[in-house]
Amino acid sequence: MTAQILDGKATAAAIKSELAVRVAALKERGIVPGLGTVLVGDDPGSRWYVNGKHKDCAEVGIASIQRELPATATQEDVENVVRELNADPACTGYIVQLPLPKGLDPNPVLELMDPDKDADGLHPTSLGRLTLGIRGPLPCTPLGIVELLRRHDVQLDGAEVVVVGRGVTVGRSIGLLLTRRTENATVTLCHTGTRDLGYHLRKADVVVAAAGVPHLIKPEDIKAGAAVLDVGVSRSEGKIVGDVHPGVAEVAGWISPNPGGVGPMTRAMLLNNIVEAAERRAGV
Ligand SMILES: Nc1nc2c(c(=O)[nH]1)N[C@@H](CN(C=O)c1ccc(C(=O)N[C@@H](CCC(=O)O)C(=O)O)cc1)CN2
């Protein structure tokens, strides 16, 4: 078997075209959605991601608000920028690019954000709303994964999903999304403390690999025909190495490339959260 591709790049492009139509409709009502970003320090990867977010905004007609602070910024400097964006009426929602430089604590920064301006869906209130089933912004990478599977007709209803990795942006929250009645999957969260990872993986209809361990998921761990989503980002000689061994493509039914899979979907879902926030505020 050679797996079919879960093409995140093409799917994200289609979503962006749909969002551009919704942004145009908002503009007709005098509403211009605006995304703010807070970038602290000079990590080239983080800068690349933030620049990508503003490029995406320009493509769909969302306004950009960019705030940058040097690596020497204090906790108070970062929190002051958050206060500014909370008060800025042009800013529909914003993100603080993670990770923050060493010595800065992201949690008080996230808690200070106005939850109604949380574009990442990572604010404690957003995660609480997701737990309680209250409408609000959803975490971008998990939402991107659900949307990527949905648009490729990969069944989640009744599926056994195994998530590998317990990080905040994916592993911690994706189970909340996938076990909603609308998705109706059964989710097992595995991590470095899991005793027999292969045992869990071999039962999975869908695997979400978000451990950040190069080629952790081997072909012999995968059930024939399973859908495998590679979220891991490690780098070797300037190239991305995912969590999924290339041989998995011979066993799986569906596989997301990396790059070109979940990453572009994460970006598209950020735009989606901004448009939804603007629509919510306009009563659409
Ligand atoms: N505040 C946040 N910080 C971080 C998040 C996040 O969702 N919110 N996620 C990651 C970084 N990230 C977005 O910020 C992100 C990562 C990767 C991609 C992407 O499109 N990747 C490309 C490949 C890019 C490359 O060659 O390096 C792909 O997968 O095709 C988009 C967004 C951590 N921080």
Question: What keywords describe this structure?
Answer:
single chain; 284 residues; alpha/beta; Rossmann fold; 2 domains; six-stranded parallel sheet; three-stranded parallel sheet; 9 helices; 40% helix; globular; binds the ligand Nc1nc2c(c(=O)[nH]1)N[C@@H](CN(C=O)c1ccc(C(=O)N[C@@H](CCC(=O)O)C(=O)O)cc1)CN2
What does this structure look like?
The chain has 2 domains: 28-132, 3-Layer(aba) Sandwich (Rossmann fold); 140-264, Rossmann fold (3-Layer(aba) Sandwich). The longest helix is centred in the first third of the chain and has 21 residues, at 8-28. The protein is built from 9 helices and 11 strands. The model has no long low-confidence stretch (mean pLDDT 97). By secondary structure, it is α/β, with parallel strands linked by helices. The protein has helices at residues 8-28, 44-60, 75-87, 106-112, 124-132, 140-151, 171-178, 197-201, 262-282; strands at residues 4-5, 34-40, 63-69, 93-96, 160-164, 186-190, 206-209, 227-230, 234-236, 239-241, 254-255. Helices cover 40% and strands 16% of the residues. A hairpin with a 2-residue loop joins strand 9 and strand 10. Strands 1-11-8-7-5-6 form a 6-stranded parallel sheet. Strands 3-2-4 form a 3-stranded parallel sheet, with helices on both faces. A two-stranded antiparallel sheet has the order 9-10. Residues 49, 95-98, 120, 140-141, 169, 240, 258-260, 263-264, 266-267 line the site of the ligand Nc1nc2c(c(=O)[nH]1)N[C@@H](CN(C=O)c1ccc(C(=O)N[C@@H](CCC(=O)O)C(=O)O)cc1)CN2.
